[in-house]
Design goal:
The structure holds three protein chains of three kinds. Chain A is of the alpha/beta class. Chain A has ten helices and twelve strands. Chain A has a domain of about 90 residues. In chain A, helix 3 packs across helix 4, helix 3 packs parallel to helix 6 and helix 6 runs parallel beside helix 7. The N and C termini of chain A lie far apart (about 55 Å). Chain B is α/β, with parallel strands linked by helices. Chain B folds into two domains: about 180 residues, Rossmann fold, CATH 3.40.50; about 100 residues, no CATH class. In chain B, about 40% of the residues lie in helices and about 25% in strands. In chain B, strand 4 and strand 5 form a beta hairpin. The longest helix of chain B has 22 residues. By secondary structure, chain C is mainly α. Chain C has a single domain, classed as Orthogonal Bundle (MetI-like fold). The chains are: A alpha/beta, B alpha/beta, C mainly alpha. Chains A and B meet through helix 7, helix 8, helix 9 and helix 10 of A and helix 7, helix 8, helix 10 and helix 11 of B. Chain A: Keywords: ATP-binding, Cell membrane, Membrane, Nucleotide-binding, Transport. Chain A: Its main location: membrane. Chain A: One of its GO terms (molecular function) is ATP binding.
């Protein structure tokens, strides 16, 4: 699938399993994905899709006691999977920056904002204390903090949500990492602030040439910022395409269902599309076969592959399983599970 | 007559500062807000965090002490707890919360959670009560064995449906839905929104739909108000707000919604930044010197915006122009 | 910050007034008076009456209260009816002993509890943690007097390492000798009291560490490439100390108040022991003075806790 040129990040056959009892269950199941310089790769999925697990696997933040990671994450000639803590600590913050969802809980309440940013520099640069401070002030200015000197000395609770998220971004970009992972960076923010933060991320990508992995559940955010999109369902990538292609020609039943369930301009009075059933829990995921099949039961089993693989359907456009070929929507109303419409007295 | 008439509602919190901890100012969470909720209709309340939208909702249910103003229900002012009690207001008006997990008592079984409002207002025999609970679970499409389970055993969407079942239990006339789908995944959100519409049709329930999500509000609410700093900046029908926004704050909010079409990305961004620039530069035309939102000016029969009185005519013309672009020259001559 | 502290201090004034009124009233409500103990078949009732008049016992309550308060301001807590000595000087002598014992207990408590709590939290569910859990369950469950008597029996009589009563040996001479002897007498009661006091601190610290390990900001720190050792000391531990810091003031006050128990069992001549003996001899002037002092210490302890919490937690600093 990936071309032979070297990618910034090259993930091959990544499995991340969590221990439930004595067995491991893969929350991320055989992911192949690449990230290049100067691109924003969006990973879209609902809760339980494994998108956040994928992010934490890349940056190696899982508790080794109850997690099992297999496969390769090739970065700069080394495999990040199984890297020891000391070596990984050199990469975290320096080569991979991470932006988190909830900016209040992601900042240490007892530390001044400036010191939290400077801490990254302390472990990755040879700058002395004074130089670090100057550097931090410059970064604060870069991420759009109006009064860097004041904010340096402030504590997280003294800032608004948007300002806090700028601090988180400042921490992530302090060492100009080539890779930035943003895990739902705007979910906790108001729309106007969300727009500003997304603009900031795009500007950073253009300026530094970093590759950004944007993890989100919001298709609007994807359409506004991503260059390339991977749609995840139940631990697997079900569709991957350049952003325009994905929104113009969504193929996988899951992608199409998701787009259909969004409240949009034209379906104001209609019912929204509802996907039948629920996302399977970690333990209930089928090891084989199309994992989305139980949620589109009106599609015959013969339409699915026994061992679904990714099919190239266009330039850089890949779809898992063959069911996309025959997929059609059922009448929207009858797919409402239970509910008033089905209740008979 | 409207089901609920909110008149000049104010909810102010005192701010205590200084050595003696005296009240030095007030946080005006809700500052002179008026609107009506019609029977069987959904009214949308849109705002960002801290806009006072939730406080307004809580004041209507009676969870927030009202500083001044009236909330008329069947012609009676229910801002006093005694009035609410005497007219079964608490039975007629229910609430659905955003966080379905923390709003359901974790130590109670679903049966008791749903039966609680019934027990508060009606006295049913245990068998009748259980029948009612089963019916309610049916309505929200939950299996009948759910009654013996605890909240944590359900997914977010299922819990939100249990919250709806509890709210519907007393046959309410109005449900205040405070960000009912914000914590839910897209596909589950669709399910819950559909349920709300179904229930509304079946039982003729009114909703006050409080949300920050302009897409969801657009889908759910024919009428709505945009809130900012405890005040209404614009009220109107869906078309008024989304097609002819007059207040700069509304325009800014609308421009910030990400569009699900990547091909317009560049224009959207330019437009958004232009509106943002306009917002920064024209702020003083839309807020008084204390940063307070102006009073609403009626622009059309159903559309009002908080603009300066002298600006209102201009807005009216603009709306006309938007609607009937060809007639504009004629109007200009008339003026 | 200073304003807040000053306001808290000023707020203590009405609290102390209410406390003193309650103490005064309690003393008045108690049956009998110190002179009833002097009554013998030969006592002349008129002489008893004269004594009571001299002591002001027939004045209205508010006059008595006022006299009591005014006297206290002059450092005059009255005279012990039993020992016929100034209460102030008696309390003064004992207070020094109690203070040093409480201080040593306090220091030992934190010296034991903090490292033990850190080990339990850091190595959660390991054999170390399990052993510490057993330790905390035992110290929580065992009644204090059983524990103290066992300690006295083991270390005092069986092993003979420490003296089991008194605060200083009569034969101690010289500065170093006296301090040494004092310490020697204090170690056993302080150590045993400290062991009992560690339980709650260990538990708070342990659960604080376990909770904070899961916090998002710890994940942020790890994502910055901060070494695990520093993540623990700078991020997890600092936040886990907040509840501990909040208890410091209270804890000291509790130790002063709790001296009643320890000192009685160890026959240690401090305020606690004085309190018990005064109660049995109905020496009201001492009882009232001590109750007032214990009360004021509790208020002061809360004040210190408040101040410490404000210093260590920036979220409480803003007005």
């Amino acid at each position: 699938m990936p071309d032979e040129t070297t990618h910034l990040l090259d993930i091959q056959h990544l499995h991340t399993g969590f221990r439930v009892g004595d067995a491991f269950y893969d929350a991320v199941d055989d992911i192949n994905l690449t990230l290049d310089k100067n691109e924003i790769l969006a990973i879209v999925g609902e809760s339980g899709s494994g998108k956040s697990t994928l992010a934490t696997s890349i940056i190696g933040l899982h508790n080794p006691k109850n997690t099992r990671v297999r496969g390769t994450i090739a970065y700069n000639g080394q495999n990040l999977v199984g890297l020891d803590e000391t070596a990984f600590n050199k990469i975290r913050g320096n080569d991979i920056g991470m932006i988190f969802q909830d900016p209040l809980s992601a900042l240490n309440p007892l530390m001044r904002c400036g010191d939290q940013i400077a801490e990254t520099l302390k472990y990755h640069t040879k700058l002395n204390k004074q130089e670090r401070k100057e550097h931090v002030l410059a970064i604060l200015e870069r991420v759009g903090i109006p009064n860097p000197k004041l904010t340096y000395r402030q504590y997280p609770h003294e800032l608004s949500g948007g300002m806090r998220q700028r601090i988180i971004i400042a921490i992530a970009i302090a060492c100009k990492p080539p890779i930035i992972i943003a895990d739902e960076p705007t979910t906790a923010l108001d729309v106007t602030i969300q727009a500003q933060i997304l603009d900031l991320l795009e500007d950073i990508e253009k300026e530094t040439g970093s590759g950004i992995i944007l993890i989100t559940h919001d298709l609007g955010v994807v359409a506004e910022t991503a260059d390339r999109v991977a749609v995840m369902y139940s631990g697997q990538i079900v569709e991957e395409a350049p952003v325009n292609e994905l929104f113009a020609h969504p193929l996988h039943p899951y992608t199409r269902s998701l787009l259909n369930s969004m409240p949009q301009l034209d379906n104001v009075e209609d019912k929204l599309h509802v996907i039948q059933g629920t996302v399977p829990s970690l333990k209930d995921m089928q090891p084989d076969g199309c994992r989305f099949a139980p949620r589109i039961p009106w599609i015959p089993a013969s339409a699915h592959e026994a061992h679904p693989t990714m099919h190239e359907v266009g330039p850089n456009h890949y779809v898992r399983c063959t069911c996309y070929k025959t997929f059609h929507f059922q009448d929207a109303l009858s797919s409402v599970e239970g509910g008033i419409v089905n209740v008979t007295d | 007559m409207s089901l609920i008439e909110v008149k000049h509602l104010k909810v102010h919190y005192p701010v205590r500062t200084g050595f003696w901890n005296r009240i030095t100012s007030y946080v005006k969470a809700v500052d002179d807000v008026s609107f009506n909720i019609e029977a069987g209709q959904t009214y949308g309340l849109i705002g960002e965090s801290g806009s006072g939208k939730s406080t307004t909702g809580k004041a209507i249910v009676g969870l927030e002490k009202v500083t001044s103003g009236q909330i008329l229900y069947e012609g009676q002012d229910i801002t006093k707890a005694s009035v609410r009690k005497s007219m079964h207001y608490n039975k007629d008006v229910q609430m659905i919360f955003q966080d379905s997990l923390s709003s359901l008592n974790p130590r109670k079984r679903i049966e008791d959670i749903i039966a609680e409002p019934i027990r508060n207002f009606e006295h049913l025999a245990p068998t009748d009560e259980q029948k009612r609970v089963q019916q309610l679970l049916d309505i929200v499409g939950m299996p009948s064995d759910s009654i013996y389970k605890y909240p944590f055993e359900f997914s977010g969407g299922q819990r939100q449906r249990i919250g709806i079942a509890r709210a519907v239990a007393t046959h309410p006339k109005l449900i205040i839905a405070d960000e009912p789908v914000s914590a839910l995944d897209l596909s589950v959100q669709a399910q819950v929104l559909n349920f709300m519409k179904d229930i509304q049709q079946a039982y003729h329930i009114s909703f006050l739909f409080i949300s920050h999500d302009l897409g969801v509000v657009k889908h759910m609410c024919p009428d709505m108000a945009i809130m900012n700093q405890g005040r209404f900046v614009e009220t109107g029908t869906r078309e008024d707000i989304y097609e002819h926004p007059q207040h700069i704050y509304t325009q800014r909010l609308l421009s910030a919604i990400p569009e699900v079409d990547p091909t317009h990305r560049q224009q959207n961004r330019k437009h958004r930044q232009a509106v943002e620039k306009k917002f920064q530069s024209e702020k003083k035309d839309y807020y008084d010197q204390n940063g307070r939102v102006f009073d609403l000016q009626q622009l059309t029969e159903h559309h009002a915006a908080a603009v300066k009185p002298e600006q209102a005519d201009l807005c009216r013309q603009e709306i006309e122009h938007d609607r009937y672009p060809d007639e504009l020259p004629l109007r200009m001559e008339v003026e | 910050m200073w304003k807040t502290i000053l306001r808290r201090v000023l707020l203590m004034i009405p609290q102390i007034i209410i406390l003193s009124l309650m103490v005064f009233m309690l003393a008045k409500m108690m049956p009998g008076d110190p002179f009833t103990g002097l009554v013998t078949p030969q006592t002349d009732p008129s002489q008893l009456h004269r004594l009571r008049v001299e002591a002001g016992f027939y004045n209205p309550w508010y006059v008595q209260y006022r006299d009591w308060v005014v006297n206290m301001f002059h450092g005059n807590f009255g005279t012990s009816y039993q020992y016929h000595r100034s209460v102030a000087s008696m309390i003064g002598e004992r207070a020094v002993n109690t203070f040093w014992l409480a201080l040593l207990t306090f220091v030992l408590t934190y010296l034991i509890a903090i490292p033990v709590g850190i080990i339990a939290g850091r190595y959660e569910s390991s054999w170390k943690d399990n052993a510490i859990q057993v330790y905390t369950y035992i110290t929580l469950a065992i009644p204090a007097f059983v524990f103290y008597l066992f300690g006295i029996w083991l270390f005092g009589y069986v092993l003979g390492w420490f003296p089991t009563s008194g605060s200083i040996s009569v034969s101690a001479t010289g500065m170093i000798g006296k301090v040494g002897s004092m310490l020697y007498h204090m170690i056993l009661p302080a150590l045993l009291a400290a062991i009992l006091a560690t339980t709650s601190i260990i538990q708070y610290l342990r659960s604080g560490i376990i909770d904070n390990k899961q916090e998002d900001y710890v994940r942020t720190a790890r994502s910055k490439g901060v070494p695990e050792r520093v993540v623990f000391s700078k991020h997890i531990l600092r936040n886990s100390f907040l509840p501990i810091a909040a208890f410091i003031g209270n804890n000291f006050a509790v130790l002063i108040g709790g001296s009643v128990f320890t000192e009685t069992i160890f026959s240690y001549p401090g305020l606690g022991q004085l309190f018990i003996s005064s109660i049995s001899s109905r020496d009201y002037s001492i009882i009232t003075a001590l109750v007032l002092i214990f009360g004021i210490f509790t208020l002061l302890g809360n004040l210190i806790s408040d101040i410490i919490l404000r210093v260590v937690d920036p979220r409480l600093r803003i007005q």
